[in-house]
Amino acid sequence: MYSLNDVDRLLEIKDYLDDGLNISGIKEVYKKQSQLEDERKRNLEKGLTDSDVRKILQDEFLNIGGLKPPSSSFDDPNNLNKLNH
């Protein structure tokens, strides 16, 4: 019997095939997704530094005060990497 995840993956593969990707292209898509997921997990494991928290707080105060449009720095977990450097 197949799990819902298995069925979902098969439907994704069918969609990729319908979009014109071949099997090696689909493997690359899943490889890239895996790499992004691994990077996201590493960023979450690092945690936030005091500097990161101060930056978030400062952005929130500016946003609440209407002095600055909302920042998307933390909408994407991959952007955490930018603040750590």
UniProtKB/TrEMBL annotation:
Superkingdom, natural source: Bacteria
Ranges where the HTH merR-type domain occurs: 1-32
Protein name: HTH-type transcriptional regulator GlnR
Species of origin: Lentilactobacillus rapi DSM 19907 = JCM 15042
PROSITE patterns given in the database record: HTH_MERR_2
